[in-house]
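User: Structure tokens for this complex, please. No commentary.
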Amino acid sequence: MKGYRHWSTVPLQERPKISVVIPAYNEEWRILPTIGAIAHEMAERDESFELIVSDDGSSDDTNKLVRELELPNLRLIESVNTGKGGAVRRGALAASGDYILFADADQSTPIQQFDALFAPLLDGSAQVAIGSRGADGAEVANKSLKRKILSQGLNTIVRVGFGIKQKDTQCGFKLFTREAALDLFGRQRIDGFSFDLELLFLANRQGYAVAEIPVEWIDAPGSTVDAAKVAIQFLKDLVSLRLRAMRGGYRHIIHQPADSSATTNQQLRSAA
Amino acid sequence: MNITTNQGTDSTVIVLEGRFDAHEAPHAASVFDSVLDEGQNNIDVSLADVQFIDSTALAQLVRVMKRCKEAGGQFSLLEPSDPVLVILELTALDKAFNIVDGQSAEQAA
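Assistant:
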């Protein structure tokens, strides 16, 4: 608890080692327990860390709840609604850590799995580590049959059509070195749910080693995703990804790291 | 999540172990309700071995607290783990619940 008490009261004096980005869209019901779980777990570690909630134009009280916490090392990034890919990108490009994790707001992959992803980045064997429900040893609880069939079908297309070797592209628990994050999110275009796939496509293309780590995953009830609708959009995104790659659309970094749009609660307070 | 019910002299202690989330809330609710329906209005819920609790689970605890109080009984959370205590603080529910931590339990003994 000592680590958390310190983290929740004393602003970081230097750039954090780790940034955790939580993309959030209408998460007023789930965001506080998730912030609590992540903040406690990460604050008890030795490395310094910052937490970033990247709001995606929520129409509920997500922003208000996060702001009112007044935690000095928690940043809220506000935006109009663009889709999850946009929210993760804004969060990752605003992050100042040496390592940048994004983690879904529902804690479907418990934050306790962080170390498993961190290990291959620390020993240099990978620059990207992704949580996987498809890798050997992964535990999936409460995943519906519909979601299983859908994800297997999409995985086959992704593997065969795009040469992506990873078994699970969509798990919302991915860790990057800073260099890889700025490079990949800088090039990445898809604002919707298929951004995960685009990131892995780009990671392979840019020559980053990607470690796929089996994780425990709990399908959170109340998930706001319509699986069939997502699948159709995913297929559309695959086509535009392929066309964009053929036309050289990924050659340049188009999104720069930006911290001007982000304000810490500390700054908000001093401005008030 | 494992749920164990122990009948004490003054209260019923319900020990929860694992992840207490929306998946587990219906099962927990049925255990809470059966204890209440038996006329036990003093309930202590041990959260020492719960590492994560979500909003649905918290709502469940609030509901049981209300039922205990309406029946003239008492409701306490026993020794919540550190992550659960942080979640209770961030949701401001630490002020709503009677929380018995390890130290106050020792003092009371």
